[in-house]
Amino acid sequence: MGKKIEELGPLYTIHCMGQTLHVLTKPELYQTFFDSPNLDFEETVFDAITKAGLINKALFIERHTKLYHAVKSAVSPLRSDHVSATMCHKFREQCRQFINIGVETSLFDIIKKCMYLPIIQALYGDNVGFRNKEHYLKFMQAFERFDRDFELGVQLPSIFTPKWKQARNYLLKFMISKFDEESKRGHDLTLFDELKIVTGEDAPNYAMMVMLAALSNAVPVAFWTLAYVLSNERVNNKLRAELDELLAENNYDFNPELNSADLKRLPYLSCCIQEALRLCAEGVVGRRVVKDFKLMGYDVPKGGMVVLCPYWAHRDERFFPDPLTFTPERWESIPINRMSYKQGFIAFGGGKSQCPGRFFGYMVIQKCVASFLLQYNCTAHSPVPKFSMQHLVGVQHPMEDFKVTCNYR
Ligand code: HEM
């Protein structure tokens, strides 16, 4: 990576499919990028989000700051124990339903089936459920299509992406029906209610987009963490020892409902997640240039986009020695709450648009990965898959299946 940066320079320009992308590779300037008044997050994403969510663009622009804060406060660390109080339990229930003991299966498939429901209910309340297994699987199928083809769906005329459009409409209909049911009962405020306060009748459309941001990032990160851990005996043993120690100290059985205090006592688990996130981070974080300006002496004209590439930035050997290996220990000297501030690490973006769901996402991954490892011993049947590189704006998905066989511990 270092050599490539030397070859291309700290800022280079790509013209691709009618877009001009100025790629910034100098880590010392990442903060300048996030803070620059000449670069705008909203102008970068509005077209895509309004098309995907069938949201009125002018209204979205008007509401964006309030929306951002609604999401941030609904899933803030202060509320995390509350919103995810039964997450480990729900995750285990899903595992019982979808994991065939002793049978070779795709780990990514299992993790999606087991995590989608607990995450959706933590965000929108327990009422957002499914009639039966078939209904859940149909929902999953639509979500997978919507997520997988998102970047094509928001760029091409819908005539070229009929299945993506169909999936989007299915998910929106689902959200509208749940929103109607949810509004009828008295309960604690969920993100649905917060969105309703800001957006009124459009709340299901926004709820669908936040669901996309949550599931399409948190679930693959949990998958990669498990794939790397299960493929590395040393890491696997060390992590299981940490988990077993927590059980022994607390007199927990193998099915604990972990809270935030428990999670703080699992530092090696956090190192494993952080290391997986480093390796599987998204292709780009972008900002539209809204005013001509100069960056390191280069003219950057209005209209194009300046982008950072977390996937490549995280492979810079100056910040991450031996960058291609999965080494959770590289994070051990950093306090857990400072890990994501390490220079060169930009998986959650930055500045005033930094991911508002990052603490919640992290906690969800911790809970699900820990619950999985406490329940099952797994044999991996293939090496960790390659990254598909299809997700420029979300974390990477696997290119091939990663097959495992699970048995109860
Ligand atoms: C753990 C995995 C996650 C990763 C790696 C991730 C990454 C990101 C990144 C890179 C951005 C763009 C930030 C920027 O441009 O500076 C973003 C934005 C966003 N994320 Fe996350 N995210 C994750 C989980 C979540 C979760 C669980 C939620 C919801 C609860 C969420 C909700 C959002 C929203 C709503 C935005 C748009 C913010 C805005 O409108 O300004 N994310 N995320």
TrEMBL record:
It comes from the Eukaryota. One of its GO terms (molecular function) is oxidoreductase activity, acting on paired donors, with incorporation or reduction of molecular oxygen. Its cofactor is heme. Pfam families: p450. GO terms for biological process: steroid metabolic process. Keywords: Heme, Iron, Lipid metabolism, Metal-binding, Steroid metabolism. Coiled coil: none annotated. SUPFAM superfamilies: Cytochrome P450 (SSF48264). InterPro entries: CYP450_sterol_14alpha_dmase, Cyt_P450, Cyt_P450_E_grp-IV, Cyt_P450_sf. Heme binds at residue 355. Belongs to the cytochrome P450 family. This is Cytochrome P450. The lineage of its organism: Eukaryota, Metazoa, Spiralia, Lophotrochozoa, Mollusca.
